[in-house]
């Protein structure tokens, strides 16, 4: 049984009565979300472009990778290209899927699809009136230290940067071997 | 201006009218969350204990690290110890903070505090009636491959495992140098 509590711009909140695999029947609060795409933009092999974005829910600015939610029926890859150009003004010549992750499966079905963007070409930045952000470039290796130091603290950004960094490490070991 | 839409067991949903740093006034949907703690439990230097947990919102089972939301006024470190024992039946002799991350700052203030647990001693597993999970042990290095292969797809779990793995790599480089 599903009871819709609220249907908004991002959040669609249901109360759902569910029978679990152990036989227990429970009522769960579930936020249904269309899903999202995010992009780790590499300007060159070792330089990442991040955004420093104002987040009301976080009470200030966060370093993030460009990201946004899927439009209805939109392919995550198209969403990634769109958000990359809208938020930082670049198009990706090449887009590789890195991973897809549940952001917080205890209360939402949101999945974020994360890509690595390379062969960047200039496009047209186009921010919404509710998007307050600036660009910042860092060496990829420096961003890994910024995660360790607690300077980068957005989960999708940590996942994307660490996945890309570990790929680079594996490739380098492969070349050395 | 804040309008409360719903106050539930986990989710507390507000509609908040906010003036952004660019001067725009917008109405935002914000899920207020008490925060959470999660633990990467290392049975020995290279062996991780994961849980395979049924998640209604994800439509099936996910590999995860033990985690749970903070009780009112609870220290994240205590929450981490509590969830570790309740979910997998171990106490940590040592608990090191790994990172703290916003799970999805576009619509919630949820922060998850992630710890590394070592020197594990047997305690008392105590699952809630709504927790359906089994334990699974893996070499730490194998979990990094499972992330790459899309088998591990929970964001906090990816963050925790990769942070701990990168720590181990840095320590080993330090020892070799």
Number of domains of chain A: 2
What gross morphology of chain A would you assign?
A: globular
Per DSSP, what share of the residues of chain A sits in E-state strands of 2 or more residues?
Answer: over 45%
The strand count of chain A comes to 10
Q: What is the overall pLDDT average of chain A?
A: 95
How much helix is in the residues of chain A?
Answer: 10-25%
Which chains have the largest interface?
Answer: A-B, 61 and 61 residues
Indicate the topology.
Two copies of one chain form a homodimer.
Chain A: E1 2-7, E2 12-19, E3 25-32, E4 36-44, E5 47-55, E6 60-64, E7 67-69, H1 76-88, E8 90-102, E9 111-122, E10 133-139, H2 140-148, H3 155-176
Parallel strand pairs in A: 4-9
Antiparallel strand pairs in A: 1-2, 2-3, 4-5, 4-7, 5-6, 5-10, 8-9
Helix pairs in contact in A: 2-3
Question: What's this, in brief?
Answer:
The first copy, chain A, has 177 residues and is of the alpha+beta class.
Describe the model.
The structure is a homodimer of 177-residue chains. Chain A folds into 2 domains: 1-32, no CATH class; 36-176, Alpha-Beta Complex (Nucleoside Triphosphate Pyrophosphohydrolase). The mean pLDDT of chain A is 95. In chain A, strands 4, 5, 6, 7, 8, 9 and 10 form a 7-stranded mixed beta sheet that branches. A 3-stranded antiparallel beta sheet of chain A has the order 1-2-3, with no helix packed on it. Chain A is of the alpha+beta class. In chain A, helix 2 (140-148) crosses helix 3 (155-176). The first copy, chain A, has helices at 76-88, 140-148, 155-176, and strands at residues 2-7, 12-19, 25-32, 36-44, 47-55, 60-64, 67-69, 90-102, 111-122, 133-139.
């Amino acid at each position: 049984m599903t009871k819709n509590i609220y249907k908004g711009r991002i959040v669609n909140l249901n109360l759902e009565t569910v029978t679990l695999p152990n036989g227990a029947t429970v009522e769960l609060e579930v936020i249904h979300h269309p899903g999202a795409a995010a992009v780790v933009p590499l300007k060159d092999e070792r330089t990442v472009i991040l955004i420093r974005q104002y987040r009301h829910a976080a009470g200030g600015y966060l370093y993030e990778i460009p990201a946004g939610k899927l439009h209805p029926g939109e392919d995550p890859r198209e969403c990634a290209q769109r958000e990359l150009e809208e938020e930082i003004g670049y198009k990706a010549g090449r887009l590789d899927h890195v991973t897809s992750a549940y952001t917080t499966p205890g209360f939402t079905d949101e999945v974020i699809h994360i890509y690595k963007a390379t062969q960047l070409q200039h496009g047209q930045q186009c921010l919404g009136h509710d998007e307050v952000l600036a660009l910042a470039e860092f060496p990829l290796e420096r961003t890994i230290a910024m995660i360790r130091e607690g300077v980068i603290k957005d989960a999708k950004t940590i996942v994307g940067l660490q996945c890309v960094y570990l790929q680079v490490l594996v490739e380098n070991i492969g070349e050395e071997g």
